[in-house]
Fold this sequence. Notes:
CATH topology of the largest domain: Immunoglobulin-like
Strand content: 15-25%
Shape: globular
Distance between the termini: 24 Å
Helix content: 10-25%
Bound molecules: calcium ion
Largest sheet: 6 strands, mixed
Number of helices: 3
Amino acid sequence: MVRPRTTTFLPLGSHGEPTLSHLLSTARHAGLLLGLAGLLAPAAASGLPLISEVLYDAPGSDDGEGFIELVAAPGTDLSGYELRAINGSGGGVTASLLLAGTVGADGVHLIADLRADGSTNVAGADEGFNFDLQNGPDSLLLVGPSGVVDALGYGVFGPGEVFAGEGTPAPDVAPGESLARLPADRDRDDNGLDFVALAQPTPGAAVFSAPEPRMSLLMGVLLPALFFRVGSRARPARREGALGA
Ligand SMILES: [Ca+2]
Ligand SMILES: [Ca+2]
Ligand SMILES: [Ca+2]
């Protein structure tokens, strides 16, 4: 059986168990370093809203099927933001959606395509508009009060076609597939790197990155344990053999 390596870093008592004082001391250092880690690590989803998933081509008619998903810090007021679709052929604006909602506690905001009668097949939408995204090559901009905050270009752009996304285009996807940013809150400003095709779209649900817990674990647990290991090496094992087993 392989024991986790970290257990070997903890100072051990006479019966091989970590002593209470060592655990308390480790916890104090862990708390201090967790605080430092919190100061150093960027807060998740604290930045500007991002386009996190788009379904632009449903099997058959797209009417009432398409959706655009955004992620943003919970409570973000999206009034003043606009989703602007850009035609890859000529660069004209093919749709302009003036958002008005507030991002909920889950940090995900779902915008559904509505049919003329106001109905939609997109469940759980936060906002609805009657729009139809083209199948690409095209782009979708998220424009905030101070300008473009995110952009997605998708499809294969030929010479002379207008790519208004970031870096390289996201791939064209098959009907029924979506393009999803993965993780939903990571923005490397390169659509080809940031987006993947999802055969099973996830409107309203997003997978966020979690660098802070891993960093906190590293700084809060592993490093203090390492310090104690070094400290215990500096002192001779003076109690070894002093107590009977
Ligand atoms: Ca279609
Ligand atoms: Ca971006
Ligand atoms: Ca999603």
